Amino acid sequence: MSKQWHVSDALAARYADGSLPEPDAWSLEKHLETCTGCASRVSGAVRGTVAGPVLRDVRAAVLAAAAREGAPVAVRGSGTGASRFSRLLWAAGPAVRGAWSAALLLVAGAALLLGHLGGAPEARTLLLAFAPVVPVAGVALSYGPHADPLYELTASTPGGGLRLALTRTAAVLGVSLPVLTLTGLLLPASGVPAAAAWLLPGLALTLATLALGPLTGFRTASALTAGGWLCAVVAPAPGAPADQVLTRLADRLAWCLGDASAQSAWAAAVALGALLLAVRRSAYDRA
Question: For the whole model, what pTM was predicted?
Answer without folding.
Answer: 0.65
